[in-house]
Specification:
The complex is a heterodimer of chains A (about 240) and B (about 250). Chain A has a single domain, classed as Up-down Bundle (Fumarate Reductase Cytochrome B subunit). Helix content of chain A is about 60%, strand content about 0%. Chain A has helices at about 10-35, 80-105, 110-115, 120-135, 150-170, 175-180, 180-185, 190-230, and strands at about 40, 55. Chain A is elongated and about 60 Å long. Chain B is an alpha+beta fold. Classes of the chains: A mainly alpha (about 240), B alpha+beta (about 250). Chains A and B meet through helix 2, helix 6 and helix 8 of A and helix 2 and strand 4 of B.
Chain lengths: ~240, ~250
């Protein structure tokens, strides 16, 4: 197959990418909406308006009981936010499991995401970081492969951040932790799980912003086409 | 653009048929084994059904975490309470001596218990966490009569699937399935942290469902109704929560 016809992304990667994009955005919107009902965070097992906070977010709340200092109360959106949050979580988890299972079996992770050993030397990494900081556009060699920082970032998201955010989410479920108490105990308590869940959300949003910025830098139309149809234009052509 | 070979078409057709059949069989089985929540209609039905079914298959008998006395919250938050009506105030003036818990529906011996009678039943205490769906929480020691004991006294008919519970605040009514109703930690609580259950926390009588969120732990309970069908209550969604946009099952 000539290179120009070889897909940059396999069918499975493209489909799971967009299903997970939609479910992640649904989780993000509904999750932030849930934070509005109690924009206070704690560490340990318990916390409420009667206890000191670890930190609070300076926004108005959808509950009058929360002392925000704003003098008004936002409308309650928790009902649909909770329904949407958990339904999207199911979609994301099941799609993610399919992606990981197939990726492990067909060598996608080993071939496309695991960096070559020489590439993770401090020197090579420094070069790659420098290229990124200068916003250099990717060269021809990246038309069908990922650079080392990209590989490390994707591995971090797939195998650390997503498993952690799912775990901390489950650790907030009273029935789940009844069955598996260790899931919350090792995190230091249910409020710690909630706080970690929030920080993991922040990490994933940061990844999303950088990811989308990089897509623009590399050529939005070309990269978008690659993730929708799988095909990419000839490497040297600049969009 | 996309070329479909005949073989691919047949394979896709077979897979789709198998998928559809599998889905129908799965929903029938789920219905039969009580894995479908009453608010399973609508666009969020699939997610709710998956959550509830997964919990019932995997965690049906698990016990909520219990804590040590030193972990009891020093400053628990009672949450806001809607104004309590004249009837409540009348009962309060009589130190709740006339407070009754009625048990009716599909039982062999419909009954009505006073608080004194409830307190004479075998009591159980546990130090557990109550979590509000908003995100805050506290730990307290709850004391009460196990719901399973009260149901046993009234005589549960075999076809019963749910216990509906009503508050003196008529807007608040909830229901739980038998897995939670017969669960050893499910109490009709009248005590908290060694004393009487304060009114702000649901005194004189509160449903304590240890594995579900705060809103299933309805305050000021006056009546239990046992049923095999939640359709006949309110809008048929199982409880007041789905009518207000919240999930019926709150074990998440």
């Amino acid at each position: 197959m000539p290179d120009t016809l070889r897909p940059r992304h396999s069918f499975l990667v493209r489909v799971t990418h967009w299903i997970m994009t939609v479910s992640f955005l649904a989780l993000l919107v509904s999750g932030l909406e849930l934070v509005v009902s109690h924009p206070r965070f704690y560490w340990g097992e318990t916390g409420s308006v009667n206890t000191p906070v670890l930190f609070k977010i300076p926004i108005a709340s959808s509950r009058a009981k929360v002392p925000t200092g704003y003098g008004y109360v936002l409308p309650d959106q928790n009902g649909w936010s909770r329904y949407l949050h958990f339904q999207s979580a199911w979609v994301l988890v099941m799609t993610g499991l399919l992606y990981v299972a197939v990726g492990l079996l067909n060598g996608h992770f080993r071939r496309d995401l695991l960096p070559a050993r020489p590439d993770v030397s401090p020197k090579r990494l420094a070069v790659s970081i420098g290229q990124h900081l200068r916003f250099e556009r990717p060269g021809a060699e990246e038309a069908w492969s990922y650079n080392v920082l990209q590989r490390l970032a994707y591995l971090l998201v797939v195998f650390v951040l997503f498993p952690m955010i799912i775990w901390t989410g489950l650790a907030m479920s009273p029935s789940f932790v009844a069955a598996i108490p260790a899931a919350v105990n090792v995190l230091g308590g249910q409020q710690s799980a909630r706080t970690l869940h929030f920080f993991l959300t922040g990490s994933l949003v940061l990844f999303l912003l950088v990811h989308v910025f990089m897509v623009f830098l590399a050529g939005f139309r070309n990269r978008m086409r690659a993730m929708v149809t799988g095909r990419t234009v000839e490497p040297l052509e600049r969009v | 653009m996309i070329k479909l070979s005949r073989r691919k078409l047949i394979a896709t057709g077979l897979a789709a048929t198998a998928g559809a059949t599998g889905f129908v069989v799965a929903s029938k089985l789920a219905e039969r084994y009580g894995l479908v929540p009453p608010d399973s209609g609508g666009i969020y039905g699939p997610g709710e059904t998956l959550t509830y079914a997964a919990q019932r298959v995997l965690t049906r008998h698990s016990l909520a975490r219990e804590f040590s006395p030193s972990q009891v919250s020093k400053t628990p938050f009672a949450n806001e309470v809607d104004p309590l009506g004249e009837e409540f105030q009348r009962l309060q003036h009589g130190a709740f001596a006339d407070w009754r818990l009625a048990v009716d529906g599909l039982v062999t011996r419909p009954a009505s218990f006073s608080l004194a009678e409830l307190k004479s039943f075998p009591r159980r205490s546990h130090i557990t966490m109550i979590q509000c769906e908003e995100g805050w929480s506290y730990i307290a020691e709850w004391t009460g009569a196990p719901l399973s004991h009260i149901l046993g006294l009234a005589g549960v008919l075999p076809k019963v699937r749910y216990v509906v519970y009503h508050s003196i605040q008529t807007d608040w009514w909830e229901s739980i399935d038998m897995a939670d109703a017969l669960h050893p930690q499910t109490l009709l609580a009248y005590g908290m942290n060694g004393g009487e259950l304060p009114i702000g926390f649901g005194g004189p009588l509160r449903m304590r469902v240890a594995r579900q969120l705060g809103y299933k732990n309805v305050k000021y309970i006056t009546r239990l109704t046992l049923t095999d069908n939640l359709k006949q209550f309110g809008k048929g969604l199982g409880s007041a929560s789905p009518e207000g946009g919240y999930a019926w099952y709150a074990g998440i």
